[in-house]
Structures are given as structure tokens and as C-alpha cells.
Fold each of these.
Amino acid sequence: MKKAIIIFTKVPKVGDIKTRLTTEKGGILTPEEAKDFYEAFLLDVIDACIASDSGDVWICHNHSGDREYLDKLLTGLAHPASLKGIFKDEGGTFDQCMQYAADFILKNGSEERLADALLLVGGDLPALQPFYLQEAFDKLENIAMSPAGLKASQKCGLSNIYLGAGIVEGSCQEGGFSIVGFTCTTPLDFTGVFYNQDGVTALDALVQKAIDEQIPFGLIQNVPDVDIPVDMASMVPELKALSLAARYDKRIKPAKRTLNLLNEMGIETSTSVPHRDDAGTEQLSTD
């Protein structure tokens, strides 16, 4: 099974990236700092994808993104020559952009396809680990080759491809998902996943599509993204924990750029301090 990983991203631009982390939106960063953090996230994510050695690594960036700036940024990768390619989406809604990225690689299962299966990965997942991606592809291949996967793939009418259907996803906060993978014979499209009129979460929408089409579905490692201040607060101790664990587990790849930027800026995470009543009983703060 030929595999591909697509990192789905915006080209970093001041005032256009991670704005909910900025002071203007209730966060702690300036627009310039928010851009710097996203660049660190993105490079750490790409390095993790390349280090996984699980398939060709592609980057799909926003239609209006500055390709020249992106190319310059990518020279900071550990192994920039290991990228398979870079392409831009065609604009439109997030659903349409993600669909275009998937179609660019899988090409509806035609002989011109660039891979048999792919993982779509967000650029704001600094805790992403190479072995998460390896395990995701292993699970995808297993469920796709199950009797249910082979049956579901028949809906695509690709009888010349001996590969079943399957979906794997890694969930994140607020009912979303940060990683999704599927095969070229999976009857899945992204219409209504991120943009719908019923208030359905992206994860619920994806699950419902799997149910409707009877596509085998697998859960993979939860990898949180970083959109709002509370996400960043959760990220800091997790990255520190991964950095320590990496001393004892060679599979773990610390997010060095993100950690360095956190250290440079002196950003730490704190929590409410419990207080005690007169009897010495510990009480949780409601602040």
C-alpha cells in the first residue's frame, strides 16, 4: 500500500494566523508572536511526519499563501529534501479545501493516483509523534482489509484495486479532529464536515458519514491542536513531559522549536491554587 501524509496548513502571515491566541482576542501573544509560534508548530509537525518514514510527505497550503515565503521557511527543516511536494488548494470553504487536498493525492482511485491511502494532518499539532503516524497507517490498513472494508470499497466501483475502505481519526478538543486517514477506495467526502447548518461537530459529522456508508472506522492517538489560550496552556506541560520521556524512549521526538520559543519568551503554565478552610480541609478554587 503506497502511503502519503498531507500537512494541511496556511502559510504563516502576521495577523492571519492563530489570531485567537493574540491579546486582541483575549490571548497573551502579539500577532507577530502568534505567527512565530505557528511557524515553530508547523516545522515541528513536518519534521515529525518526515521522521515517521511512513509515506510521502506533502504540504497543501492556502490558495492565497505566499509560496516564496513558505519555501524560505522550509529551509529550516531537518531534512527539507525529504518533502515529496508542495501544492496549494483552490480556495473556498474549509470542506472544499480539504477535499481538494485529498483528491490531489488519491485522484478518486484512478491509475494516476499518487498514493493508495493518506493521512491529513494539521500544522498546529506540536505534540505529534512519528510513531502515532506509523500506528495510524497500520490500523488503517488492517480495517481496510477486513471483510467490512472490502465490502464498503465496492461502492467506489474500483474493482481493479484490491484494497478496502477505511477511516481512522485522531480527535482533538471541542468535538474536532486533528488527523484523519482513509484509502482511495473509501466513499468519503468532506461536504458538511466543517461547515453545516445544524451545529454538528466535525467529529460527529465524520462518524455519521462512516455509519451511513458502513465504512470501518478506527480511533488513533488523540493529538491536541492549538487554537485558543487554554489549548496553549495545556500544550506547555505536555511538551515538557514529552521532552523528558524522549530521554528514555527513542520513538519520541520533542518539539524542539516550539519548546525553544516557549523558553525564550518565558511562558509557563499555572493553575489555580487550592485553599483550605479553617478545619484544614482542602477546597478547590472556583476562580
Amino acid sequence: MNNEISGEARKDIFETGIHEECGIFGIYSNESNVAEIIFYGLQALQHRGQESAGIAVSDGENILVYKDLGLVSSVFNHQNLAPLLGKIGIGHSRYSTKGRNAWKNSQPLFRTFRGQSFAVAHNGNLINTESLRAGQLKKGVKFETSTDTEIFASLIETSQKETIEEAIEEAISKVKGSYSILILTKDKIIGLRDPNGFRPMALGRKGDSYIIASETCALDIIDAVYIREIDPGEFLTIDKNGLRSQMIFPVDRKSMCIFELIYFARPDSYLFKKNMYEVRHRMGQELANESGSGADLVISVPDSGTPAAIGYSSASKIPYVEGFIKNRYIGRTFIQPSPEIREIGVKLKLNPLKDIIKNKRLVVVDDSIVRGNTSKQIVKMLYNAGAKEIHMRISSPPLVYPCFYGIDMAARTEFIANHRTVEEIRRFLGVESLAYLSIDGLVKAIGEPKDNFCFACFNGDYPVDVSEIIEYDKYSLESEIKKQSVEIS
């Protein structure tokens, strides 16, 4: 039974900064309809993707899906949640890295295997999509979307295996990259995490119900108890017989995305049994230990830079104050971006507190610098507001290489640190000093072995081969850098 309900499609054409791909949430309950619980879980994961949202539920016989473009709170209401009757279900909030922002690319995706319905919700990025798609096309498979999730679903759908579990195992053996996946059948939920563990995945329980979510903050909102992280390479099945776990493939190298800890995971979430606010606080402390600066005040670029700024303040003994007021009611703009519009966009979101920062020497803490344009506008705003000096401090190492595992950052040539030294970036921003946290300082702040993480965006050491999707060579890279270079005075 194919029951996908669509709403009016909406498209956003203005994107800046670093973006996660998706949030996923699933629940197996023996007690009540789960659509409303999934709705609240997705709201807790809204930070992981704001382009579309969807929920799939099963009543034991049929799977019903509702999805649309927009925020979770704008996609769902009492009217469209009411028909979603079932005691098991999965949900998804999406930011697109593979496949444009269009309704057909929203999730969960609905498909069939041997006449039986299933739905898929995916967080991550497959890196061998072109060869897999070509292989499926040769088999006569027709694709409806441009997402890598559909490729995974099609591998299941066209499998000759007897059971869906076997078909999923076969599909996993063919895909490469990052994936935390939930699969809903009429009577079970299956959770998968790639052998590298790029994306987080947590298991929780509320009464007799089991919950799987991208982050622990989604468990908190429904008063569920956190049990543990789902292990890299784990294949988890939840049905009427309870919970079963198996390890399908060996784990050669754990590679949790380091940016989950720096930025993406909500500050109230836990990874490696560590609170992300506390981890980011320690990043700020290490940053101060590595590159302290004489100043009057420490401020943050809110909200992502705030925990590190407070940590910097505690280690440096320089008072922390709010230097910006953030407008939390500004969403995305639908105006075609131009330099003027982008500058207005920054001012709409952040407004400096002039009386606080006037004639002060400031340490300004942020989590990262990508292209440098937004940071330069922020610096300009602070100087215009009367700041005497600005010392920029970044609670991560310089971003140099693109991510192919589910984070939309920028092309390699767009990273300002790819073709400029720290001193050149300092001059571009127009600040008195600039310093980044070192990789060693980052590892020390986290308090976990360095080998547990992927640092590819900093050092180019990709845990899974990405040669299939790299579309440029050394010569095109050099020419692009020359083309985009800005004269440094």
C-alpha cells in the first residue's frame, strides 16, 4: 500500500555556512500511536536539517507516510498527524547534500520488497553512488529521486534474497560512506550504523518502548532513558520479540565525525558519554591555553561559539559577556543572494551591544571559519560599534578539505584556509590577532583517543576512499584558486 501524502512544495535558494545532513528518529511501542512522539523527537533534532520533514508509521499491516518541505513544526499539525495511526514508526528531518531540495527527495522513502512495504530514513552520505546507480540502471531500475538514500532502497527492493534482513545485509555490503539508517517494515524497525560510525546513533527506552535517534537530546524530550550508543557496524532489529543486535561487518577504523563534537550535536546531547556543552567548554579552555590574548572582554559568535567562549574566559580569567543579541526568529531568506543581501542577512541575525563593547579589547570566539566572508562582516560590525581591538579565536583547526561523509561545508577552493596562511586570513578579516585550536588541543579537550575520529576536513586523511566523487584534479584546483584569489593588501 503506497500512501505518500504530499503538501505544497517550497524551495529555499539561500544557503550559507556549514550544514548537517539529517536527523532520524524511530520508536517501537506496544502501547500507543507513535506519530506525535516522533513529531516531538524530530523537533528536538531540527538543528540537523531544516529543509524537509517526514514521518512513516505502520499499523501492523500498512505503512503510511506524510512528508513535506519545511520545518517540522510547519510540516505537521493535528490534522495531518491524526491519520498516522500505528505503534511503530520512523521520522526524518533533512538537509540535502546529495540531491536537491525538492519534495520528491524528502524522507522517509517508501518502497516495497517482495510485495511488502518498507520505509527508509537516512543520515549520512554514500560515496560510491555513481557506480551503484549505473549498476541499478543497467538492471532496468527507474529512479524517482536524486538522493543516495534511494540507491540504498533500490538495492533492497531489487534483491533476490528471501528476507528483507538478508536484502539489507546484501545492500550494506555494496555501499560505502556514512550512514545511520532506520528501516520500517510493517512489524519491525531495523537500525544500521556504518562500520566507521561517522554519524551518531543512540538507543533509548521508555517503558516497553524502544527508541533510536540521532542524538540523546531527542530521548530527553520524550522522557526516555538513554541506554547506549549504537555501535559502528551494528545491525539492530526491534520487533515483537524484543531487541536483537548483530555485527555484520568488521570495524576496521572508527571515525566519528569530529564536527559532531565541535558544532553539530546539540550542547545538551551526549557522545562517548560526554556532554557536548562540557566538551566545547574544554575546547575553549585549551584554546586559551594555546593562544591567550590580553583583552578586556571575551564574547562569542552565538550560539555555536558560546560554550567555547565561556571556557576561554574561565581559563584566561578575562570576563565573558554577551557582545551580540541574536535574533532567534529569523529563518531563511528567499531572496537571491548578493553581497549586499548577505551583509543584511548577518545584521538581521546578529546585532552588537554597543555600550558593552565600545572602547574594549575583545576576544571573539567562534567554532569555525569557512569562506571567511561572514567572519569579516562580524568583525566590521564590531569595529563600527566601537571595539578598540579584536582578537579572533577559533575552537577548531583550520578547515582545508571538503567533507564527503554527510556535511555540506564548501568546495575545497572555497575554504579560505586552503589557499591562505593564518596571517593572511588575519589580514583579510582585519583583526589584531587570529588563532585556531590545534588538533592535539582538540583531542585533549574531548578526552578520547584520536583514532576514534575523522579529522579529514582538517588534514585530508579520509577514512574511506573518496576518489570516486572527487571531481577536480591538481591542475583545476590550482586554476580555481587563482581565479578566486583576492588581492591581500
Amino acid sequence: MHFKVGEKVRFLSETGEGTIISFKNEHNVIVEDETGFENEYPIQQLVKIYGDQTDAIQGGYDVELADDSALSPTKSGEEVSEIVQRKGYWEIDLHTHALLESEAGMTSGELLNHQLFELKRFYRTAREKHIRKIVIIHGVGQGVLRGEVRHFLEGQENVSFYDADFREYGKGATEVELYYQ
């Protein structure tokens, strides 16, 4: 993936985001994070943020999501992928094999961006339908997707979240309670 000075990026190895301010060499860039600190990152540890996602991060419901022209089609077309309606709650599986027809040709950063796109679309739909409880299956892996899911949820209003039932999901899911006024 090619980056330019001034582009907004997310980190694969930690939560948060920043802006590329310079290139150290062909493999590393200097990024100013949201707190104003400048740090060096390997290019392969960055994911470009497409479009303006500030509303989605800050709790807006009518959000402009990532530029979906760069994403592969989902298995179910226009509908939110892989929603399972259980008794009393909704569940979504964010594993890429559950969301995409094929992962061929996609970088890990593009796959993560697609997973976050589906998460935000799922969350918005659950809010619109006044669902009170959702479960987000993110898997265990290296914890990158789990960190991004939790970072997103921390920016939402009227929610609480915690590890989902270990007996049913192991350590790979987050349960979210949605509150309405």
C-alpha cells in the first residue's frame, strides 16, 4: 500500500490513529498520533483510513462510512453481512471468511478496514432497530481486531461492553449493551 504525507492512518499493532508527517526511509514513516506525539512506524503496520469516519468514531448514527469502492463485495450484497438474530440479541461474525466472497489480493490492512466497515454498519443498523444487546465475534488472533472493536465502542455513547460468555465464544467475542433514552 502506498502512503502520502498528510494521510490519516490506523495502527495494526495498537489502538489509535494518526497522520503521516514524513518518511524516514522506504520502509518507515513518522506519524503524529491523536495526542500530538510523533513516532516512527513500519509501513506494513499501518492501515489507511478511507473517507471521513469521525462521526462513526464519535458516536454519530447517520455516519459516512469508509469508501466502499475499495472493498470487495460482501456475501449478502447491500445488507449487513452475517447478522444472526438470536433470542434477545443480534450477533455478527467479523472473521473475513464470513464477510467476503474471497480474500484474494487483499492486504491485511484492507481486510481490517473491511471488517471495521462491517462493524460500523452493523452497529448503526442495531441502533436504528433499537436492539438492546449485540455480540461481536472478532476472534482471538493477535488482538488487533479486538482492539479496534473496543476502540470504536469506547467512542460510542450509551453503551457498555465486556467479554462475551466464555463458554459460548471463548475469548473471541465482545458483548455490548445498548441503552436508549
